[in-house]
Amino acid sequence: MQPDIECRPLARSGSPPTDRRGRVIVSILALALALALAAAFVARFVLARWSDAKVVHSVDIDDRVVALTFDDGPNPPDTNDLLEVLAERNVLATFFVIGRHLEAFPESARAIVEAGHEIGSHSHHHRSMRGHRIAAIEADLKRASAAIKGAVGRRPRVFRAPYMSQGPGLRALLARRGMHSIGVSASGDDWRIFDPDEIEEKVRSAVVPGGIIALHDGHAEAEEPSSQADRSATVRATGQLIASLQREGYRFVTVSELLALASGA
Questions:
Q1: CB 164 within 8 Å of CB 176
Q2: What is the mean pLDDT of the chain?
Q3: Same domain, yes or no: 101 and 165
Q4: DSSP notation for 231-250
Q5: For position 115, which CATH number holds?
Q6: Which of 18, 207, 216, 221 is the 20 to 30 Å CA partner of 262?
């Protein structure tokens, strides 16, 4: 008799079809996620470049002309002291005011305009406008413009974004309102530097013809307009800076005058 022989199926090599399909699906999903993240990064980069493309940091002119600007005021007595320094040197400047500060000190805003200087908007609450809803940004712009018009009788033509940060919504709204978005080419960093000599040197090292200088007469982070930081160091630095640049042949104009020079108007 022949012995009984048990017949068993040969084992198949490799993973079952269901496992292979699962790995393929996971790979496809991972690739799709990677592509989506890459597309989002590119879109964000392109959108950021587009948003900032219309911000004016300087203008292309050969003449030794610069625009001197001050942010975050009004902030008496420092704003008033600055006006005295500017008058002594026969210099005009542009003050980018915060709406809620202007509402607290309308007399300082009127003194700025009466002295021949320009007032620009620096928003009403000085909150970042990048990534916020269009309606919220527009409400802030309108409130700041209304406050300025109520104090000095005219709406601002120039705007500087809080924290120098401009998103696509803000760019679109400024274009709709016919306002220029203004940046900076030389900053004194006087929100963190409190030595007048250092502030002056910081600006001078970056000054170029057609440039825009940014200093501060107020304090955007103050809880109340009446509790703004002391800017006496900026006042002293401004006098030193003007004297130094005038010796080098520079003259000072408002931001709107600088834009007009660049356009040939």
A1: no
A2: 89
A3: yes
A4: -HHHHHHHHHHHHHHHHTT-
A5: 3.20.20.370
A6: 216
State the Cα angle at 169 between 219 and 164, rounded to 5°: 30
Active site residues: 71, 216
Determine contact, residues 181/55, Cβ cutoff 8 Å.
yes
- Are the C-beta atoms of 123 and 165 separated by less than 8 Å? no
Nearest Cα neighbor of 154 from 73, 261, 256 is 256
253 Cβ contact list (under 8 Å, min separation 6): 65, 66, 67, 92, 261
pLDDT tens, residue by residue, 146-193: 999 999 999 999 999 999 888 888 999 999 999 999 999 999 999 999
| DSSP-based three-state secondary structure for 173 | helix
Strands 212-216 and 251-253: unpaired
Beta bridge partners of 119: 95
For 179, the 3-state DSSP assignment is coil
The pLDDT of residue 8 is 53
How do strand 180-181 and strand 158-159 relate by DSSP bridges? parallel
Give mean pLDDT, residues 107-118. 98
Question: How many helices (H) and strands (E) are present in the chain, helices listed first?
Answer: 9, 8
Alpha-carbon span 80 to 46, nearest angstrom:
42
Q: How many domains does the chain have?
A: 2
Full residue range of the structural domain in which residue 70 is found: 55-263
Q: Are strands 65-71 and 94-97 parallel, antiparallel or unpaired?
A: parallel
Q: 56-65, 162-171, 189-198, 230-239: which has the minimum mean pLDDT?
A: 162-171
Write down the pTM of the prediction.
Answer: 0.82
DSSP string, 64-118: -EEEEEEES---TTHHHHHHHHHHHTT---EEEE-HHHHHH-HHHHHHHHHTT-E
